Amino acid sequence: MSVRQRRRFLGSLAALGTAWLLPGSAALSPSRRSRPLSRAGTFLWGVGIENTWMAQADPSKDGARRVLDEYALTQHDARWKEDLKLAAKLGVNAIRYSIPWYRAEPSPGSYDFSWLDGPVDLMVNELGIVPILDLVHYGTSAWMADGIGDERFPAALALYAQRIAAHFEGRVTHYTPCNEPAVSATFSGAQGTWPPYKRSARDWAALGVRIARAMVLATRALRSTARKAVIISADAVGWLTADMLFDTAGRKTAAREELRASTGSFPSSLAYGKVAPEDALATYLVKNGIARKDIEWFSSNAAPPDVVGYDYYPDLFDYPHDADYSRGGSVPLAQAAREATEKVEAALRRTQAYFGLPIYLMETSAGRTAEARAAYATALLDMVHRLRRDEFPIVGLNWWPLLESFDWNYRNEPSRSASEFLRPGGWNNALYDLKLEADGSLTRVETPAATAFASIIGRDRRR
Predict the structure, then answer these.
(1) In the 3-class helix/strand/coil scheme, how is 120-147 assigned residue by residue?
(2) Distance from C-alpha of 238 to C-alpha of 32, rounded to nearest angstrom
(3) What integer is the mean pLDDT of 295-323?
(4) Which residue has the higher pLDDT, 29 or 296?
(5) Distance from CA of residue 194 to its chain's centroid?
(6) Nearest Cα to 206, choosing from 142, 134, 153?
(7) To 5 degrees, how large is the angle CA 390–CA 176–CA 14?
(8) Tell me: the pLDDT tens digits for 396-443?
């Protein structure tokens, strides 16, 4: 996926897929539902190592596409000790870390987590860092040829979750069952970008419901196996999607905002029990082939997380027509950074109001240049302090990514070398850039943003 594509998608989910693939319906009356606020623990300052994988590469089904594995591309799978120590040097106490499913379960029911023991043990036993383990970061095992479109996906993810939790019991407590479910449903069901390469409203609906069921089953498995499990979601909400599907014009009302939130966060809203069978979104799903009993199932089987993890990049959401939030230097950088974090803050408040749970800013970064990234990092601390003064339940913040990463279009353009896909900007605003050496190795180059991020962590802890 190119930076431009992700910019357009995250800025408006409708603009990429649902605007033209999911036809609008008549206005319906949504009902309002809410959940009580949960309590949060120690604040987590963290980072994430970009960990997208897509293993399906069968020419008969996937064409010329090649395997995408960010760990392999960034050489993290061989240099994980170095990378984790770079993260620890920043002072973080959390790292969001993925489990490439296709490596851990190469064939149905055959599991091998030994390769992950080293990184987890280093984080937990030596570095004092909380690992937040992603179960699915878009991809599945390759033996599910249709990815999330495989009928076995929900049950397979639940069993996988149970095995992971059992293996890491006593070492890992924090889990994310499914990264950005709304993105997965759109890319696989409406965009035709990822398996099973579908492009219709009915497929978007069907895959979304399947993802929601998988999230519920995996969350149950984690909670029943890991005695102290903390479930943190990773949601990207497309607030404009409902505007394309329903008649939302007119005065801003609570019902209208509820509809925007539930549609923009689908399938998470369904998995978390936020969609009643009579709601507008439920009615739309039924019109597109979903059995009403399948929607009703979630009303009694909902599995909300303990913490809503929210992914927000102001460059993508709020400045889609500029290179980044600095707007080409048209305003002083510190002022631009503050304005960007104010937009993030507003989005966090809006999201928390809908879900009624503590919030973890699971992914954020901004700034095409290292200086812009550093200014944004500095402004983030002021944002956190503003939220705390208002007793807003923010429990953590991750800079994403730690390392400069590879454009996802690497998968779709096999004739081009990997080095051509090291492209900064959009969501790829790293604390450490990658420099390709003559021998093919990738040197980690510290940026001013790393210094700034470490500084705000230290300042916060000294308060």
Answers:
(1) HHHHHHHHCCEEEEECCCCCCCCCCCCH
(2) 19
(3) 95
(4) 296
(5) 16
(6) 153
(7) 75
(8) 999 999 999 999 999 999 999 999 999 888 899 999 999 999 999 999
pLDDT digits (tens, 9 = 90+) for 331-383: 999 999 999 999 999 999 999 999 999 999 999 999 999 999 999 999 999 99
pLDDT at position 177 over 80: yes
CA distance 22 to 27: 15
For the four alpha carbons of 169, 400, 364 and 125, in that order, the dihedral sign comes to: positive
- Could you give the CA distance from residue 422 to residue 407 in angstroms, rounded to a whole number? 6
> CA-CA distance, 136 to 233, in Å (whole number)?
11
Residue 262 to residue 322: CA distance in whole angstroms: 29
Reading the block at residue 278, the tokens are: 């009579």
Six token digits for residue 430: 């790293």
The DSSP code for 329 is G
Element (H, E) at 436: strand 432-436
Nearest of 393, 410, 311 to residue 358 by alpha carbon:
393
Q: How many residues does the chain have?
A: 463
SS3 433: strand
What are the b/e assignments for 104-121, b being 16+ CB within 10 Å? bbeeeeeeebeebeebbe
Question: In 302-411, which ranges are continuous DSSP H helix?
Answer: 314-317, 333-355, 370-389
Cβ neighbours of 346 (radius 10 Å) = 11
Q: How far apart are CA 453 and CA 45, in angstroms?
A: 9
Whether 289 contacts 276, CB under 8 Å: no
Between CA 267 and CA 313 the distance in angstroms is 21
Tell me which residue has tokens 């925007």: 260
User: Cα–Cα distance between 80 and 82 in angstroms, integer?
Assistant: 5
Q: State how far the Cα of 27 lies from the Cα of 263, in Å rounded to an integer.
A: 13
Under 8 Å between Cβ of 91 and 458:
yes
Beta bridge partners of 54: 68
- The C-alpha angle 341, 250, 248, rounded to 5 degrees, equals 75
pLDDT digits (tens, 9 = 90+) for 81-138: 999 999 999 999 999 998 899 999 999 999 999 989 999 999 999 999 999 999 999 9
Specify the 3-state DSSP secondary structure of 149. helix
The first and second tokens of residue 133, run together, are 């383990």
Q: Helix axis angle, 201-225 relative to 292-301, nearest 10°?
A: 30
Question: What are the CA-CA distances from residue 271 to residues 225, 233, 275, 280, 297 (Å)?
Answer: 20, 11, 8, 16, 10
Within 138-277, strands assigned E span: 174-176, 230-231
